[in-house]
């Protein structure tokens, strides 16, 4: 493990510090449950996801960032529109050949149209891994796979688990 970390920091192709910006779009799927007076459940849906990160790399290969993500309904079994907002903070660590792992913790909110459910804010987290391909010394195109978990207890109890993929453009 120590050799991997030393090789990572010695890798000049990844050695960048300074401002980090990333914008991504993709899709996710999973299951959302909301239990209140009318026990609402969505399964087997697919969302469109828009994602943005802004941060700073204080040392080579480590970036801390703020993240905002909006996931909106595409299809569900009962065709009710729904959306999810995730706002948080996290960090990414770049490995050799521009592979990376990331994790963030934040606040999440669910919303479902046509349902009388409370949709306050709760806690969530996201873990991801991906790969960037440099197109310039300062910019890259990438792909990122993620898992996100979110829970909201605002009168009605929301619970969601999501797996997704994002295609990113980044400045680092």
Question: What's this model, at a glance?
Answer:
The chain has 172 residues and is mostly beta strands.
Features:
172 residues, 8 strands, 8-stranded antiparallel barrel, elongated, 5% helix, mainly beta, single chain, 1 helix, disordered N terminus
Envelope shape:
elongated
Strand content: over 45%
Measure the end-to-end span: 26 Å
Poorly predicted runs? 1-12
Describe the protein's architecture and organization.
The chain has 172 residues and is mainly β. Helix content is 5%, strand content 72%. Strands 1-2-3-4-5-6-7-8 form an 8-stranded antiparallel beta barrel. Strand 6 and strand 7 form a beta hairpin. The longest helix is centred in the first third of the chain and has 9 residues.
SSE topology:
Layout: H1 2-10, E1 18-35, E2 40-59, E3 62-75, E4 82-94, E5 99-112, E6 121-134, E7 139-153, E8 157-171
Antiparallel strand pairs: 1-2, 1-8, 2-3, 3-4, 4-5, 5-6, 6-7, 7-8
